[in-house]
Amino acid sequence: MRRPSNEVDVACIYETDAGWRVSTTNERATEESIREYSDRAAAVEDFVNRVEGFVRYGELRKRLLAQREC
After folding, report:
1. Distance CA 67, CA 49 (A)
2. What superkingdom does the record give (predicted)?
């Protein structure tokens, strides 16, 4: 993904003049949790961890909502 725009709750990775930037956006599409990397592999690892975190959160939320319906 390139620089974050108006998308909410997403992980972002993009190249900067100094290296790589990994961040997330919040419910207002504001960039937060910004980390800068000179090493591409470290940036990609951080990005993948953030994406996996969003997936785990979504799965947990879905299960909790299903339990409430029972």
Report:
1. 27
2. Bacteria
Per-residue pLDDT of the chain (70 residues; tens, 9 = 90+): 556 667 888 999 999 999 999 999 999 989 999 999 999 999 999 999 999 999 999 999 999 999 988 7
**For tokens 């990005």, what's the residue?**
47
The pLDDT of residue 70 is 76
Nearest CA-CA partner of 10 in 58, 42, 62: 58
Q: Which domain holds residue 51?
A: 11-69
Number of separate domains in the chain: 1
Look at residue 25 and tell me if it is in a domain: yes
Strand partners, 19: 16
User: Has residue 6 been placed in a domain?
Assistant: no
